[in-house]
Structures are given as structure tokens and as C-alpha cells.
Amino acid sequence: MNPHAKLVFTMSLVMGTSITISSNHWILAWTGLEINTLAIIPLISKSHHPRAIEATIKYFLTQSAASALILFSSLTNAWFTGQWDITQLNHPTSCLVLTTAIAIKLGLVPFHFWFPEVLQGSSMITALLLSTLMKLPPITLLLITSQSLDPSMLTFLAISSALIGGWMGLNQTQTRKILAFSSISHLGWMIVVITYNPNLTFLTFTLYVVMTTTVFLSLNQIKVLKLSTMLISWTKTPTLNASMMLTLLSLAGLPPLTGFMPKWLIIQELTKQEMTPTATIITLLSLLGLFFYLRLAYHSTITLPPNSSNHMKLWRINKTPNTPTAILSALSTSLLPLSPLIITMF
Amino acid sequence: MTYFVIFLGICFMLGVLAVASNPSPYYGVLGLVLASVVGCGWLVSLGVSFISLVLFMVYLGGMLVVFVYSVSLAADPYPQAWGDWRVVGYGLGFVLVVCVGVFLAGFVDFWKVMVVTVDSGGMSLVRLDFSGVAMFYSCGAGLFLVAGWGLLLVLFVVLELVRGLSRGAIRAV
Fold first, then answer.
1. Where do the NADH:quinone oxidoreductase/Mrp antiporter transmembrane domain residues begin and end (chain A) (predicted)?
2. Contact assignment for A76 to B157 by CB distance below 8 Å
3. Which of A274, A295, B135, B147 is most buried, judged by most C-beta within 10 A?
4. Percentage of residues in chain B with pLDDT exceeding 90?
5. A100 shares contact with chain B (CB less than 8 Å)
């Protein structure tokens, strides 16, 4: 792509995100979301492959419908209460429509159908942007309005997202689709606690961004797009594969790694709010995800893949140092002992 | 006057129905023209005449005309027409959606129609729409820059998407 055009699109992504997260008027929030949607469209369709074009169209249609719903919710709230403040979204119809709109934007079940296909149609870095940066403005809007939203609807969205994210990820062989379903189930964990302690939602989101950026960057470095490629990827970068195993287990939420921290704190908060069945159900549903994370971890560290005995081992290795992956990989495996400090930061 | 405004509202819904149940874009744009003309009339009845004129000129006279020109360049010789069973299906879906929306919005006694207007707190010297546009150029300059950047971004996005002829995103050309 033309570098000037690419600069315009990436600057617009940053600008749109900043506009939405710093706004307190609904029109400005909607403007930022629309700028984000427009700017990422050419980035998804960059390779001009038919699958990429289809992913672009699916992304555009779903996000535009969700933006229109956000506009409707803010307009009905302005009609009934006379003001446009994001924190004062009080009318029940507006809250319901907004919850639906943000669920479509984030990819929560039952509005998740676009997400795996859009991620599969885009390149690995664009998929990373779609999973992390494009989720920040809708999560911010949900955090700001969380006190007036319906807890039972949000709990339903959360538990079904954890269920579908874990269950549908089991049959996938393409790594981008696996990461899409992992994103859906992590969003479920974020949403389950938002009406009780929104700080925990933001903590979960931040740690999820750190861990999933590590996985995306690692997969991008070894150019692994499906599981069969991952089986023979250890010869390219043995250390990266070993650290990717730890990062994947951290995403799964295993103790002593970072990913355990949000799950632990969310279960504690739900138990304090007398929501023990919810906490039990969502913990059991994250076991489904654990299976495909374990499968990915196994594939990344296996040294004798079940190929034919004369499969060629890659011997041309170019070890380019990759600092962001290294830093994020360290963060995503070793932050659990710092939990008291991190809790005070949110 | 009330009945005229209600007639405008009914024509708007019929226009949107035509857009939603169109068998092909060439017939859908007819519904869009009807909906925008009648929508401009409805805006005049609400009092914001400047916005109505701007919508008429820019949307109807600019965007719809350009759409019709570009679509006529790429028209297929035998498009689907209105006498198709798909139109009935889409129309029924649209009516269902409207009924659900009316019910959810709380206007369950929708046979009692009325016309509401907005006024600038009773002071008819201050025109809401015109002074809003004036504020867009004075204290709302930041939002003006954002809107201008958004339009420039749309230009870049469209140019990037249609670049490359048959090797680009739209392979039919």
C-alpha cells in the first residue's frame, strides 16, 4: 500500500480511538467509532484476496449497524431526558439498545458470527489491531455507562460468550480463528463483572491486550497460520516457541502466570456479590478454552512432529531481534506476584 | 396541516419500505428519492428549514444523482423487477420490524397519532439549525476539523479500495 495512505489510515485509527475514549458527548463518541470503522477497512482488504474483501464487507456492515444503534440509543435518551451526557444514560430502552450495539461491536455472543471470519480474512497484524485496538472504544463506552445497564442481560451475554468461545474454538485449525474465539471468551469474562466492579473489567482488558499482543506478534514472527505449520516451526526460533507456550498457558488462565490474575479477582468479586453459581459456571466454561490452548502449547513445543521421517528441517534461520515481543512476553508470564500493585493502579 | 404532515410521515415509511424491499438497487434508489423528498418536507414542518434545504441539495441533488449516474454505468440489462416474491418477503420483514420497534418504544396506542414540533424554547428569533451551523464554524471548530478529517479519510479509503482495476478490491471492473 502507498505509505502516505497507510499513514493516513493508522493516524485515523489512533485519532478515532482517542476521540471516543476522551468524549463525554454521544455524538463525539459516535464520530470516533465511525472514523475507526472507516480507517481499518482498507487495512483489512489490503491483500485484495476474495476472502479479505469478504471480511472487509462483513466488518463494515456489522460495525455500521452497531454505530447506527448507538446513535439511536443516544437519540432516544436525549429525547426522553434532554441531555447527551454519556454517564447519564438513564432511559431503559436506550440502555437495552446500547448494550446490544456494544455487543455487536465487540463480538459478544449472539452477535459474534462476524468475528472469526473477519480475523481469518485479514493479515496477522491487522487481526491484532482488530482484537485489541478496535475493542478499546466500545469497552470504554460500556465502562462509562455500566452503572445503568441491566446486569442480568450482561451476565447472559458473558456466560454465552464464554461457552461459545470455548466450544467453537475446539474444532479450529487456523490460528487466527482460534485467537478469535479466545477473544470472544475473554470478552465474556470482562463483561461478567462490569456492573459490580468496572475496574476489574479494565484490568482484564489491559492484561488480555498484553497477552494476546504477545501471541499475535510471536505467530507473526514465525509466520504460523495453521496448526500444521506450528508443528514444524520450532526449528526457526526454539526460544520463541518455548516462551509462546508459557504465553498461551497464561492466556488460558493458569496459575502462576499473569492470566490467572483477572480470573482470580473476577471470581472473588462475583463471590462477594453472592453470584457463586455464575462464578462456578464461567470457571467451568473456561476449561473448554484450556483444551485448545493446551493443544496450541503442545504444537508449539513439539520437537518430533508426526510427519514422514524424511521431512526437511528448516536450516536457514534469520534471528532478527524482536524487542516488543520480548518485553510483552515477559509481562504476560510474570506479572502475577505484582497483583497488589496492579490492583491499586486500576 | 396536521393531516399533510401525517401524510408526509406515511410517505416516508413507504419510501423506506421501498428501499428495504428493493429487488435491485435501481428500484431501491427510487424509494430513497421519495423518502428524502418527503423527509425534507417533514423537517420543514418541524421548523428547521435550513437543514431541510441543505439535505435536499447535498443528499438528493448531489449524492443520489452521483449514485444514479454510477449505477447506470454498471447496470445489468435485465434487473429483477418489483413483481417478485422476494419483495413480498422483504416487505413483511420490514412491517414486522416496524411493529416491534413501535411496541418497544412504548407507543402501543399508536392509533392516536399526533405531530410534535421542536422550538428553540419559544424564541423564534433564534433559528436552531442556522445558529448551530454558525457555531460549527466558531466555538465548535474542533469538531469541524474532525468532520473535515473524516471526509478526507473517506476519500482515501474509497481511492484505496478501488485502486488497481481488476487486480484491486473490486474485481468486476
1. 23-288
2. no
3. A295
4. 22
5. no
Best interface-test mutation with A: which of B157, B165, B166 has the largest number of A CBs within 10 A? B157
| pLDDT attached to residue B170 | 72
Contact B99, B13 (CB under 8 A): no
Contact A75, A47 (CB under 8 A): no
The pLDDT confidence band at residue A315, using thresholds 50, 70 and 90, is low
**What stretches in chain B show pLDDT beneath 50?**
110, 120
Q: What are the domain boundaries of chain B? A: 1-122, 126-172
- Tell me the three cell numbers of residue A209: 491486550
C-alpha cell at A158: 458473558
> Min CA distance, B108 vs chain A (Å)?
14
Measured torsion, CA atoms of residues A305, A311, A316, A317, in degrees rounded to the nearest 10: 0
Q: What are phi and psi of A91, to 5 degrees?
A: -70, 135
Distance CA A298, CA A160 (A): 27
Q: How many CB pairs under 8 A join A and B?
A: 53
Between the alpha carbon of residue A294 and those of residues A246, A248, B3, B21, B51, the distances in Å are: 10, 8, 68, 49, 59
Query: Which grid coordinates are listed for A63?
Result: 460495525
Residue contact B161–A8, C-beta within 8 A: no
State how far the Cα of B45 lies from the Cα of A276, in Å rounded to an integer. Answer: 56
Tell me what the mean pLDDT of segment A150-165 comes to: 96
User: From the list B154, B168, B169, which residue is nearest A38 (CB)?
Assistant: B154
- Using one digit for the tens of pLDDT, what is the confidence trace for B19-68? 888 888 788 888 899 999 999 998 888 888 888 999 999 999 998 898 88
Whole-structure pTM value = 0.90
Distance to chain A for B96, nearest Cα, Å: 18
Q: How far is B136 from chain A (nearest CA, A)?
A: 13
**Confidence at residue A168, expressed as pLDDT on a 0 to 100 scale:** 95
C-alpha A239/C-alpha A17 separation (Å) is 35
